[in-house]
């Protein structure tokens, strides 16, 4: 048991270290912020999972309880609202696309060419997509056959959004001289994008009630479990047997299933992309 306690204690320390590493920003800005952010999120979730499993394992010596605590730690950032921030970022990106599309529409309506219109938006594009637009313009400066279409497809792959795909398809057709009434088409796409933003905001407002209820349920159940483990440990003694662990596994499974269904019913399914992801280089 001493070796097991030492192992669990080491796991707890490693988990805490991972959490600290995940939540502490690094001084040097990475070249790919999204990848860096994903790494930090994974480190944080691993740390929370390891810390929760080790802490509950030290107190109860329950393998099922340790696994449940590890799962709770892994999904804690999502339950705390990380997925909501991601959805908000997606909504901001669509709103930025709508504004950028209107900029392009106005440029084409004034008689500007495709490349000059795109480059004119490089420094004034909305913040959520400004970096992507700058990279689009940089790719277009390469004087190679098909560089405009290649740059536009790379732009669509970078944003990975159905609305961006539609705009890019219209611009690709324009680069080939096959888009009639491009300004009118872009205006329609901008209106569609703003309608999607409004729809997402309405759905998010309705989802907030479900998310609040889920957090309350998790908070009450977790608080009660901590109370039993810390102050009423003798009450949990029967669950230390093999049969007791089987009962705990069933209860945890039912509770996790109910949380999964709540999350599933409140999830917004994204539309299918028009440009296949395989085009990314």
Defining traits:
281 residues, mainly alpha
Can you give a write-up of this model?
The protein has 281 residues and is mostly helical. It contains 9 helices and no strands. α5 runs antiparallel to α6, α6 (147-159) runs antiparallel to α7 (162-175) and α7 (162-175) runs antiparallel to α8. It is elongated, with a radius of gyration of 25 Å. Mean pLDDT is 76; it is low at 4-23 and 26-34.
Strand-residue proportion:
under 5%
Alpha-carbon distance between the two ends: 53 Å
Can you summarize the main beta sheet? none
Give the tally of β-strands.
Answer: 0
Q: How many DSSP helices?
A: 9
Protein topology:
Blueprint: H1 2-23, H2 33-60, H3 63-109, H4 114-120, H5 127-140, H6 147-159, H7 162-175, H8 182-231, H9 242-265
Helix pairs in contact: 1-2, 2-3, 3-8, 3-9, 5-6, 6-7, 7-8
């Amino acid at each position: 048991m001493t070796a097991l306690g030492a192992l669990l204690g080491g796991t707890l320390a490693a988990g805490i270290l991972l959490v600290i590493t995940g939540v502490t920003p690094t001084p040097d800005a990475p070249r790919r912020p999204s990848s860096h952010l994903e790494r930090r999120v994974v480190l944080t979730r691993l740390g929370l999972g390891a810390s929760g499993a080790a802490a509950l394992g030290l107190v109860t010596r329950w393998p099922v309880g340790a696994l449940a605590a590890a799962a709770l730690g892994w999904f804690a950032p999502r339950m705390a609202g990380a997925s909501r921030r991601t959805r908000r970022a997606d909504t901001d990106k669509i709103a930025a696309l709508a504004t950028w599309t209107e900029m392009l529409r106005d440029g084409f309506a004034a008689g500007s060419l495709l490349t000059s219109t795109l480059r004119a938006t490089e420094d004034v594009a909305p913040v959520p997509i400004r970096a992507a637009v700058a990279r689009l313009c940089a790719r277009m400066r390469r004087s190679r056959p098909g560089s405009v279409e290649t740059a536009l497809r790379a732009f669509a792959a970078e944003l990975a959004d159905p609305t961006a795909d539609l705009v890019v398809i219209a611009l690709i057709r324009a680069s080939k001289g096959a888009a009639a009434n491009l300004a009118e088409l872009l205006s329609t796409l901008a209106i569609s994008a703003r309608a999607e933003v409004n729809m997402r905001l309405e759905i998010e407002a309705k989802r907030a009630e479900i998310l609040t209820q889920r957090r309350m349920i998790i908070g009450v159940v977790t608080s009660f479990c901590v109370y039993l483990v810390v102050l009423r440990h003798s009450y949990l003694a029967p669950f230390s047997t093999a049969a007791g662990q089987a009962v705990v596994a069933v209860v945890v499974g039912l509770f996790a299933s109910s949380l999964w269904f709540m999350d599933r019913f409140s999830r917004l399914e994204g539309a299918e992309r028009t440009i296949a992801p395989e085009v990314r280089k």
